[in-house]
Specification:
Keywords: Lipoprotein, Membrane, Palmitate, Signal. By secondary structure, the protein is of the alpha/beta class. The protein folds into 2 domains: 100 residues, D-Maltodextrin-Binding Protein, domain 2; 106 residues, D-Maltodextrin-Binding Protein, domain 2. Helices cover 33% and strands 23% of the residues. The protein contains 8 helices and 12 strands. Strand 1, helix 1 and strand 2 form a beta-alpha-beta unit. Helix 1 packs across helix 8. The protein starts with a strand and ends with a helix.
Length: 218
């Protein structure tokens, strides 16, 4: 199956040990992007993937005409706002650059985190579909730099701050609790929505090996 290296592949290693006792071998192929895992699942190259949340899955299916479905909700990873050239939000300067993911669902999540910190203000009804066009107040004239989520940790030396997905932050050696200047509230709409899922191609939900994997993960 396909998975992001951290923490997904690490979690799957534990599940693999459980499955081995039932004579089921779990082979994990690690991917560092958010596109290929879904494509290889759709093509049948792998049986399942584990890296994404529901809104991303829905958006991906719609844009790519794929037929992927969730079979289980596994865990939640908070987004964090990490320091780059500027080390404290107290030193936020006019015109500062903040890097955010460029895919629709994760960018909305990043914008909501920035709004929660008072850095920007979004339209009241923007919710988890927010885009840059929903910014109604930007008192520091922040420049939002959109880029592929996997690249965000590498940009910290070039921007003032970056909002980074939990798995990519962990892969880069960052801890949300220790290194982030701000993280999503555990009671926020995002926390309730963005649980990471175990995903298969539609029609494979009841395969015995998939059911065994769900049991091992949950």
């Amino acid at each position: 199956m396909a998975a992001s290296p951290v923490p997904h592949a690490e979690i799957l290693k534990v599940a693999g040990d459980i499955l081995a006792k039932a004579d089921i071998t779990l082979d994990v192929v690690e991917y560092t992007d958010y596109v290929q895992p879904n494509l290889v699942t759709e093509s049948g190259e792998v049986d399942a993937n584990y890296f994404q949340h529901g809104p991303y899955l829905e958006d991906f299916n719609e844009k790519n005409n794929t037929h992927l479905v969730s079979v289980a909700a596994i865990h939640y990873e908070p987004f964090g706002l990490y320091p780059g050239k500027t080390k404290s939000l107290n030193d936020l300067a006019d015109g500062a650059k903040i890097a955010v993911p460029n895919d629709a669902t994760n960018e909305a999540r990043a914008l909501q985190l920035l709004a929660a910190q008072g850095i920007i203000t979004l339209k009241e009804d923007a919710g988890l579909t927010a885009t840059k066009n929903d910014v109604v107040d930007n008192p520091h004239n922040i420049e939002l730099v959109e880029m592929e989520a996997a690249q965000l940790p590498r940009t910290l030396s070039d921007v003032d701050f970056a909002v980074i997905n939990g798995n990519y932050a962990a892969t880069a050696g960052f801890s949300a609790s220790k290194d982030a200047l701000a993280v999503e509230d555990a009671t926020s709409e995002a926390a309730q929505t963005y649980t990471n899922l175990l995903v298969v191609e539609e029609g494979n939900e009841n395969e015995p090996a998939i059911k065994a994997l769900v049991a091992a993960l949950t």
